[in-house]
Amino acid sequence: MPKSFARSSLIALAAGLVAMAPGQALAQDAAPPADGAAAQPQGGIQEIVVTAQKRAQNVQTVPIAISAFTASSLKERAVTSVSSLSALAPNVNLDGGTPFSGSSAVLSATIRGIGSDDFAFNIDPGVGIYLDGVYLARTVGANQDLPDVERVEVLKGPQGTLFGRNTIGGAISIVTHEPGKEFKGSIDATTGSYNLVKVRGTVDVPLANSLYSSVTFAVTNREGFLKRIPYPDARAANSDTYLNFNQADYATSSREGGDNTASLRGKLKWDNGGAITATLTGDWTRQDSSSQASKLLAALNLPGPFAGTDNLPGTALSASGNTGFLFSGLYNFCISSTAQQIAARNAQALCGARGTQYGRRLAPLASVNVDGDPTNDRLPWDSRFVTADPDTSYATGPSFNKLTTWGLGATVQAQVSDDLTIKSITAYRDTRWRAGLDGDGSPLSFLELSFQQNQWQFSQEVQILGKALDKKLNYVLGGYYFKEQGSLHDYVTFDEGLVQVDGPNRFKTENYAFFGQVDYRPIDLIGVTLGGRYTHEAKQFEGGQQELNGFNYKLFGCSDANGNVTPDGPFPLAPVSCQTGIGYPNPANPVQVYVPGVNRKSFNNFSPKVGVQLYPAERVMVYGSWSKGYKTGGWTTRLTNPQGNVAPGFGPEKATTWEVGVKSTLLDLKLQLNLAAFTTDYEGVQLNIQIGTSPTIANAGRARIKGVEAEMVLAPVSGLTINGSVGYIDAHYTEIDPAALVNASPIAGIQAGIFVGAPLPKTANWKINLSPRYQFNLANGGNVVALADWTHTTPVWNDIARTLLLRRPTNDMINASLTYNTPGDRWSLTVGGTNLTDTRYLVSGNTNLSAGAIFGSYNRPREWYLRAGFKF
């Protein structure tokens, strides 16, 4: 959308709003309720108090595009996790789970075209998640359950000034329940589809005149919606079981997509009415369930090594070489070829025993289907394993998601004077996670992935909040320190062990920042915002990625550091060592492909913000802003081949955004209408460049993002409220490095590829939401609340290479519920349903051409629920 069009449209809109809302301009910073809860004006729309600028403000006075949700609205709309917010916020995509993570506890967050769809330690999120002001550094565990939430704020656009690095796309701030000064509580129990049992409760317990506490618990148990079924062929039993390969765990399940979660949160607040208040928090969550539902979408046998007819004479390599090494083709060749045919292709070692002296050894694949012994015949790899039902799979491999995360925090606030407050937020968090999935959806071990990640983080933030010049100037100054350390161990089995990735990695990050923002309103009509944040970050990484089958030794016939030679390779290098001929970097570990030693990077960044606000009428604000943000760099870790003597690294992403908007409350508080138009220059986009079989990250692209969004709340008559939103975005690449273009070029019938002008992934052009709510007041003092949610989303590409099978089509999602509340609001009973039209689409997926598999995870099917609640 041209800037001139956005400017003229918003000017015209502002003029119209001025005409509709007579009266002089008034200050908009209304004092929030003492407990921070939302206020309910008589006969109008509920006001929501947010802390997007580190101080309590009516959301309508904050010059940022924010989608804010209160506890009651989240509960009524069946929002139980962060990813459930996706349908309600324009230009926002939140998915529970990322490709091959195997866990819906991992959050894939994209706001206005910028985000991250990965969980690995080396890839930082592009949208920051904050829990009671504490940054959650990893996407693992970021898809928070919301049993005791007070509100959720979704801030769009770079938030680098007040929130920091890795908020280049935006930030999501979760604020949990504060202890009350009176004894009270609530509990609810829910049952529903797939044997759902969910129980949640919160209780406030005053301990003394100035000491208050609250405890929240939640327990959820639900069967998976994807069922594993046996493959009807006796040869399935001859495949190598996943137990023969290294895994993070060996748990499995007959169903996928289940949930078994327990969580506990406690808060202790000291407040004697004086200058100092303090809140101590502790939380604990444990998940022990099956993996995220995953199924095979396609089995590939593309032209290439061992899969076509263009092989170089006497070798295993493709003459065209345009599709990389295809292990699915090698597997099919080995099991179905005679010894003479294998020798003619110099593939004796490739089809021989799998493994090396540095790992497990498994029997050869050579000629098992043509040796005259039917008892050892193996199933070939082809489309026979693809089922038409999105909720069935022939998988037999790992299926587990085991997460334990806990945290401690302390928030201390000192009211030095009426115009000066000092606030300290101290937090420690710890995450232990193991997950595994069977991506090939078959009884073969063709694409099995599991991971183990341990992480801890410590953060300390100090904020100085003040007012000056007769309260016309508000300022925030602060400092921030962050330290993180952990490990991630990858285990990936390709094509019955022809490649066996075993990748231990260790990470360490230390970060400090100084920030400040000044909001000055010299006269009622005009306000000005100036802010900035300086960040210094130091990172360390030690990679140990290794390939336990020694495939390159067998392919090239070279020797290891001890002189052990694998003969018969298609390109024999012996007696040249693989360290010399191929570049294996660690003589002490001949199968290690990653450069040994500790790698170090440091980053320095300054993220500024400039804004102007106009207040042409009461409860009307027109604003414009310019801001920057960045996402930190790192290293590629998922290597299967050596890449020289330097660890492949990448730099940060950066975004510069211009935004203009209008926030208005009109018609005697019966209409709230907010609009924003924005344009973003997104540079240094971190893209995967395929080098051999290794997906290597590089700053290989640049993009331009333009869009508009509108959010509305209408309360035309008593009892009826209509929420609505519309988001439009055009996000496309403006530059792509040649290496990325070559490796993500279109493949007929499989991938559309990326090119200049191609859209960014996880970003719909249009998203429209309409949510009417009607409350029927009954003669006995009770009421009935009817609620519906309709969300229309245009197509979304789920991956950068734009795999056709993974494309999310245009879809319409409908949820609805009916709630009866007894007089006094003591009891409630709700019956509802989600995805009522049973619309199915893929929320994530991955294409591995070398392994010969495309797999993905579908959204949940139609489900019903029945919830009973009690307040005391």
TrEMBL record:
Domain spans labelled TonB-dependent receptor plug: 59-171
Key words, A-Z: Cell outer membrane, Ion transport, Iron, Iron transport, Membrane, Receptor, Signal, TonB box, Transmembrane, Transmembrane beta strand, Transport
Residues making up the signal peptide according to the UniProt record: 1-27
Statement: the UniProt record of this protein carries the keyword Membrane: yes
Subcellular localization: Cell outer membrane
Cited PROSITE patterns: TONB_DEPENDENT_REC_3 (PS52016)
Membrane topology of the entry: Multi-pass membrane protein
Alphabetical list of InterPro entries matching this protein: Beta-barrel_TonB (IPR000531), Beta-barrel_TonB_sf (IPR036942), Plug_dom (IPR012910), TonB-dep_rcpt-like (IPR039426)
Domain TonB-dependent receptor-like beta-barrel: 371-836
Major localisation: membrane
Keyword Iron in annotation: yes
Family, similarity comment: Belongs to the TonB-dependent receptor family.
Name by which UniProt lists this protein: TonB-dependent receptor
Taxonomic source organism: Novosphingobium pokkalii
